[in-house]
Amino acid sequence: MNAQEVIELEQAHVLGVYGRAPFVLERGAGSTLYDTEGRAYLDCVAGIAVNALGYNDAGVAQAIGEALASGMLHVSNLYHTAPHARLAELLCAGSFADKVHFCNSGAEANEGAFKFARRYGRAHGGDNKVEILAFTNAFHGRTMGALAATPRPKYQDPFKPLMPGVRFAEFNDLASARSQMDETVCAIIVEPIQGEGGVHAATPEFLAGLRQLADEYGALLIYDEVQCGVGRTGALWAHQGYCTKASGCACTDGCQFEPDILTAAKPLAAGLPIGAILMRQRVADVIEKGDHGSTFAGGPLVTHVAHHVVNRVGQPHFLAEVEAKGRLLRDLLEEINSPHIVEIRGKGLMVGIELDIEAAAVVNRGYEEGLILVNAGPNVLRLVPPLVITEEEIHVVVERLTRVLHAL
User: Fold this and answer.
1) Quick one: which of 31, 29, 11 has its CA closest to 20?
2) Nearest-10 crossing angle of helices 391-407, 316-334
3) Which of 22, 201, 260, 280: disulfide with 220, CB 3.0–4.6 Å?
4) Parent domain of 15
């Protein structure tokens, strides 16, 4: 089938909840995607911050082959398998966590985190300790609980009533957060760097203050690192980049930036569906058998591949390269002489460009220049390319984006 036939077939049979680009992608290599007409695009979306190792990566292909050789794509969580145990060990070794629970997506991870937080709240504060504090411009997912913590009328209003017990404060405003705290709050959830909300980074003072607030009120601090975690910012976990210790967060006696629960998903398994809830032992201690579960979560195929991804991305030299490439990208963007650019912000290879025009216009024009781009809100262009993008490709991205902005 040609591209038009594919698009017409999809429109006839697939629910139309996505606004898709006007071409059909066929293959990929490195940081480049190719459509059915042979056109090449430098990818600055990476499957929405998913494809950390790009496309057609030899290591990922080998890991998939190794997993397939076992013949076990799925056995369910009724049985032990080695891959998910090894992945959990690796995730704990590289973080604050003592235990990990696997799921299938970022939204599922946040749903599970809310359940665990309420279980913890009831165990330590009684039946009324169930409230969750979230923040303006947050995005935690589209399922009913996660959506309740995503304060956007466009997303929420058609599906009300949502899960009750969620309150909001201003992002990066500690006084606002304190005004919402009381003994009924069981958890605070925050993105160290907001993705969909416009690529806004939390200040160190804000994150450290939330840690103190959580401790003061006997609540859990949850970091949603679904988009900003797993190397995206130049640290394995985004919050580790806030620590002043050398080589990221190396605190051995508790860190002012560490959470009690962390949710991860997008890049964990190179595009295969997986989510993870990392937690301290004191959270794990209140969870009983049967409290939560999933048919497909933590299967041997996806966890074997995820182990390869996390092990590779977590290497110090890999993270240092991400940080350096992020600095290069931001420096080059600062040199673009366009009146449309209001602000450039972000960390590592998670960059937001605030514009005085709608980002959709830049995204659509980018296709003509061989660029795949995505927005983060109506006026913010988000650049989240594969972490393996080269410095030469970064120069090309900025050259093409410059032409797009000048054309507009």
Assistant:
1) 11
2) 30
3) 260
4) 3-57+316-407
What are the tens digits of pLDDT across the range 251-296?
A: 555 678 999 999 999 999 999 999 999 999 999 999 999 999 999 9
Over the Cα atoms of the chain, what is R_g?
21
Q: Which helix (H) or strand (E) holds 117?
A: helix 106-125
Q: 165 and 130 in contact (C-beta within 8 Å)?
A: yes
Of the chain, the end-to-end C-alpha distance in Å amounts to 34
| Beta strand pairing call for 350-355 and 380-383 | antiparallel
Strands 200-201 and 99-103: unpaired
Q: Which two tokens stand for residue 399?
A: 């050259």
Spatial CA neighbour of 276 closest among 350, 226, 223, 219: 226
Q: Report if residue 388 sits inside a domain.
A: yes
Mean pLDDT for the stretch of residues 92-99: 97
What's phi and psi for 27, nearest 5 deg? -160, 170
End residue of a domain, out of 313, 348, 381? 313
Provide long-range contacts, Cβ within 8 A and 24+ apart, for 18-27: 21/367, 21/372, 22/367, 23/367, 27/55, 27/56
Q: 209-243: string of b/e by CB count within 10 Å (b at 16+)? A: bbbebbeebebbbbbbbbbbbbbbbbbbbbbbbbb
DSSP 273-304: --EEEEE-HHHHTT--TTSS--SSTT-HHHHH
Same domain, 171 and 219: yes
Instruction: Please report whether residue 63 resides in a domain.
Output: no
261-264 and 220-224 as β-strands: parallel, antiparallel, unpaired? Answer: parallel
Tokens of 68: 């397939």
- Whole-angstrom Cα distance, residue 341 to residue 96? 38
Token pair 């080695």: residue = 82
Helix (H, G, I), strand (E, B) or coil at 216: helix
Please name the residues in contact with 258: beta carbons below 8 A apart, sequence gap of 6 or more. Answer: 96, 211, 239, 249, 251
The domain boundary residue, chosen from 313, 337, 367: 313
Rounded Cα distance between 247 and 113, Å, is 28
| 233 & 346 share domain | no
Helices 82-93 and 300-313 sit at what angle, rounded to 10 degrees? 30
Instruction: Indicate the residue type of 303.
Output: T
Reported as a single tens digit per residue, the pLDDT across 124-160 is: 999 999 999 999 999 999 999 999 999 999 999 999 9
Give the pair of three-digit tokens for residue 27. Answer: 């293959």
